[in-house]
Amino acid sequence: MLPERQLIDRIRRIAGRVKNRDVIRGIGDDCAILQLPAGQQLLVTTDLCVEDVHFCSEWDPAQSVGHRCLARGLSDIAAMGGEPVACFLSLGIPPKLPQKWVDEFLRGLLHLARQFHLPLAGGDTSSSDKIIADILLLGRIPSGKALLRSGARPGDRIYVTGELGGAAAVLKRLFAGEEIRPNRTNRHFYPVPRVEPARWLRKRGLASATIDISDGLSVDLAHICQESRVSALIEAAAIPAARAATLDLALHGGEDYELLFTADRGVKLPNKIAGVPIAQIGRILPKSSHRSQIQIQDRAGQIKVLNPAGWQHFAKT
Amino acid sequence: MLPERQLIDRIRRIAGRVKNRDVIRGIGDDCAILQLPAGQQLLVTTDLCVEDVHFCSEWDPAQSVGHRCLARGLSDIAAMGGEPVACFLSLGIPPKLPQKWVDEFLRGLLHLARQFHLPLAGGDTSSSDKIIADILLLGRIPSGKALLRSGARPGDRIYVTGELGGAAAVLKRLFAGEEIRPNRTNRHFYPVPRVEPARWLRKRGLASATIDISDGLSVDLAHICQESRVSALIEAAAIPAARAATLDLALHGGEDYELLFTADRGVKLPNKIAGVPIAQIGRILPKSSHRSQIQIQDRAGQIKVLNPAGWQHFAKT
Lengths: 317, 317
What we know:
The structure is a homodimer.
Chain A: H1 4-15, E1 23-25, E2 32-34, E3 40-50, H2 62-79, E4 83-93, H3 99-115, E5 120-127, E6 132-142, E7 157-161, H4 166-175, H5 195-204, E8 209-213, H6 217-228, E9 230-235, H7 247-252, E10 258-263, E11 272-273, E12 276-286, E13 294-297, E14 303-305, H8 313-316
Parallel strand pairs in A: 4-5, 9-13
Antiparallel strand pairs in A: 1-2, 3-6, 4-6, 7-10, 7-12, 8-10, 9-12, 11-12, 13-14
Helix pairs in contact in A: 2-3, 2-5
């Protein structure tokens, strides 16, 4: 490990290579300075990643950890239909951690950042027993145009992008002790935040509510139902489960970072948006005190209550 | 400890009591949404606090820890002459931590936040072995008016607000095993970020460079010298050491969160700014490759090199 000052200087050198015109001043003063164009609102999200909670150094390569930390934040910006503007990193590292781990972590993070023209504009460092990385993402959106969780209305259709359960299926195999090659195409190691499809929806005003699937479909759909004061009915047969993922993993597995959104029943959507397949999985119903928030119709046509059961940090420990 | 969902709901309830008109949407969606008035730039700073690095649960009450986490961020906004707009909290907590600790931590943080009309607009939570709190502070400043570290020029006078070394003197006694009452007036437990004095300076355009003293006078003055490409000469007799603080603690002790700033030699400053005493402690000299960045003149008139020796996390461990 480099001493803190040298570590910051090193990050500053690496981070300086990507520019964004909204960032007036990045690393090097007490605060970063940004200026958004007129008519734009600021989006802010923070995502805390802790070793042995969000990743496992034993099987997750440092590059993948860096990538996923940033992907979580990008996925939140995507869920609002926003454009990423700058990221900030608060990094806690054990003093005995090899510098190579830190360098690889930064490489993974900055590789993804470059794809979105996203500068690392600041942050903080500290020593810490376990590795901790808190990512702050700033984005922008034309004023009043953010896609919210709260806009779903009875009758709306429910959609998801891509495939579900893929990341959880890999995680399950890792937990079982299997060794898995951390390929760039593997959604557990290198998830792709759906910034483009969300932007496409926002520009056309087609989505009534959106959220990213970080905790699992059942949990994140429950968030939409709660914030929109509605309930939902989904169809098991329509869920786009990833190859190797069971229906259970597709319903409750987290960290796929796909988009979940609703749109008026009259809206015609293409099969793919920005190259990503779209599946209609159900519809929004009125809120009812007699009924649970989410129900699922199985392949035999039977309707059952679906309890949210995704990844919950405290419940697991 | 409450389960994560309940913890977030609880924070959301408590946090909702303070409003800021720039915050369009706080906790409850994938991102918070802010909108700054026209002609304002955004200031961003993050400060990572880790148990047993930045605070010690044995002697620091949870309220003080919450206060200090936020004070660090507010002090960074102050150092740029900015107005605080919103804070975000990423909180990692051991599952077995009593809920009372978390409640008291939030009480300390939100009590200070209220004084600056600062809403808690979002964040993240996770389980973690040690308590970790990453604070993100957003502020605003009229475009182009931020006070920077890089504006000091040879001939400028160097000033500090308040007294130095007070927080370090208390910390030294705590390390020695002494029990100290965590009074609200104690600068170790409840430091006061200098938002008002900095704003006063910024409005009048009187400071050429500013920084907050978080790491210690010697380290933070070295930052100004580095970013401004100058050197500095300070006088031992002029350093406003706190009662009970030695010159050494006043020079190198961190966490006083006073302001260090420079101003043109022609500028006349009052003895107090916004109720806080101001002391002139030296002057800026041209950069010289033969000479160290900072020199100090002792009470006998002798000039020596002053090596930066403040709080350095990694160097200590």
